[in-house]
Amino acid sequence: MSDKNNPQGQINIELDEQTAEGTYSNLAIINHSNTEFVVDFVSIMPGMPKAKVKSRIVLTPQHAKRLLMALGENIHRFESAHGEIKEAEQPQLPFSFGPTGQA
Fold it and tell me: Record's InterPro entries (predicted)?
């Protein structure tokens, strides 16, 4: 039975203020098993010996593939509008941020 206020095929998605702020990440670590993909989003800060996982997303293989395709399409649109995204040379882990500053 279809709701007249919500046509079939549409999903009502809510976004609270805290989630809408987002979480900064400059590293993603991806692992998988035969049933799921796990993506850990990490924030590494200069001069800090430890990094903290800020968010973990667990996906089915099918959803992981859909995410890959959606990211690819969005990167294509972005580059069409703003030019090619240049890849920086990937530093080896652990990151070296140089000497630690003093206050």
Answer: DUF3467
Residue 17 pLDDT > 70: yes
Residues 62-83: tens digit of each pLDDT:
999 999 999 999 999 999 999 9
**CB atoms inside a 10 Å sphere around CB 42:** 15
Distance CA 59, CA 37 (A): 5
* pLDDT for the residue numbered 47: 82
CA of 76: how far to CAs of 28, 35, 70, 84, in Å? 20, 29, 10, 9
Whole-angstrom CA distances from 67 to 25, 39, 71, 72, 78 are: 17, 11, 6, 8, 16
As a whole number of angstroms, the distance between CA 43 and CA 28 comes to 9
The residues with which 28 forms a beta bridge, in sequence order, are 41
What amino acid is encoded at 75 in this protein? I
The pTM (predicted TM-score) of the whole model is 0.70
